[in-house]
């Protein structure tokens, strides 16, 4: 017994602060959030116990999924995520591929593409709110004005104020910010392919395209998966960029994270918690298979 | 390797230091103010900048003269037009760590705090300070909930005001001095602006300003009693009168700028100041924007009640509460006494640009606009503003905002809009 303590004790002691903190602040609070979401706390008086609270199981979830407004938010989230993911993957991959060949000033280009990531979403949102101004014709400014100046006035549109697909316009700044990051990931992937493989391909007489297509691209799939997971979970949690370009009350740019904020400010804690739980599940659906996959490949 | 280790050590040291600092700063909020004053009061507001800050400073000046023994502790929280402050207040009240007194819009916005037992009934203070006679009876009635009053207003604003650019009206062939008795008369003028000048007839900003416009149109169509009835259940939201008002609202939205959802009220008012838009419906804090731009009325701009609402004062007020469990109730009562006093109200409102809730302030101390607002306030019918929390509780206002935004962005038709409003009323009416 003492020998076992000597073996397990010190490591356990060392990680116990982390375990306790995680237990309380992550898993403990997740549990509280889940319980809150299954109660009917819809006003301030219930929240501090002056009015009765009852346990309603999944009623809040049923109501949320049944409401047209929340369906609209979910639809917006899907559009945003698809556009954001596709945009960052395409641009990030393209830039990495271009920079993979020997180019002059590679470091400069790399920095230029990577810099937008250093800007906070709030700061870029303020600028993009102006760029994405929805006025057209005489009052146009931002990108719509630019389209007029370069002789492409038919490209003018009302950007994020389109009630059906406006949310996709907000993905544009997000793509602008994160593509450089995806590029860096892919570039590392390209550089990680051993030189011998390229040489062997050349020895076998493959063209440059064949070499990329059959030798290098297949080796990038783990990188691509990581990029999808990282960008995807950021997109699902989108809040700050939308808040600084649009406003929480604007119907056209509602997503679940915004709904959560509005519910909370109306003292509707149960619905806010329910939206939070839904978001957690959506992100988990994306991340858990990835973690399982990682675990398996590490064991091999 | 060595430098890397050094760097890690430095980073770790910094982290520890910042934790220690954080621990220190959270310890500061104790009672050790160190000024030698026997009492103190923490006043929680979102008046952290601009004319609001000037008003608060003026108020504190009066407070310190009236209460030399009480230390004023400024709990102002900046950001988000009060939303940052409200978020923090919500957490503090839930955690039973209330400030002594906090700012809140007078009226129904207090409902949540009242039901949650977080604010004291201050009707006793109304009697003690003689406020029932000092405030207009209409106002006291609007503030009373089940025979009790929970806050003392510091200032009054009017939400149903139209601001217009004199030059643009003249260019459109309109008489700048004209007022419009009905919305239909106004539509004619708006058409004239569009046809003659091609400028935006009516400038509008994001959702809450659209709700502000909506409430004034409801008021115009339904009249003061009908509008007030929307909140106490005596007016039916599904009635054809409401449909008619919503149709007028829809028509008005057609006269507005397309980028409205990206703007806040100063941007919309600026369009009138710059002559890019003819009219703007906004609360009377807009007068400060005209004055800051060096504009004079009536040479540069004119103002009037929203067409069809002449003789009605759509009010909103900032007010102060006495928090349940306030650590310094004596200080809080002293603060509330200053809030209700003539000196306090005059000093505050001269700096902020609003008008006193008391009816015994001398008009000649105030600007021309304020004088006209004071005259209206003393003789008009007073109704409560929706967009600013006087008429309905937060959840109801949010539901109406959502419905309005859905409608103005094209997410639904007029019938759907009215159905959403009916549903909001059913879910929230008491």
Task: Give a short overview.
Chain A is mainly α and 300 residues long. Chain A contains 14 helices and no strands. With 430 residues, chain B is an alpha/beta fold.
Write the layout of secondary structure elements.
The complex is a heterodimer of chains A (300) and B (430).
Chain A (H helix, E strand, L loop, with lengths): L1 H36 L6 H4 L11 H8 L1 H33 L5 H9 L6 H11 L10 H8 L17 H26 L2 H9 L4 H9 L4 H16 L3 H6 L10 H10 L3 H31 L1
Chain B lengths: L1 H26 L11 E6 L5 H17 L3 E5 L8 H12 L6 E5 L5 H5 L7 H7 L1 H4 L2 H7 E2 L2 E2 L1 E8 L2 E5 H6 L11 H15 L2 E4 L3 H26 L7 H14 L11 H9 L3 E5 L4 H7 L8 E5 L6 E10 L7 H12 L1 H11 L15 H12 L1 E4 L9 H15 L5 H15 L2
Parallel strand pairs in B: 1-2, 1-3, 8-9, 11-12
Antiparallel strand pairs in B: 3-11, 4-5, 6-11, 7-9, 7-10
Family (chain B): Belongs to the bacterial solute-binding protein 1 family.
Keywords (chain B): Signal, Transport
GO cellular component, one term (chain B): cell envelope
List descriptors:
heterodimer, A: 300 residues, mainly alpha, MetI-like fold, 72% helix, 0% strand, B: 430 residues, D-Maltodextrin-Binding Protein, domain 2, six-stranded mixed β-sheet, 18 helices
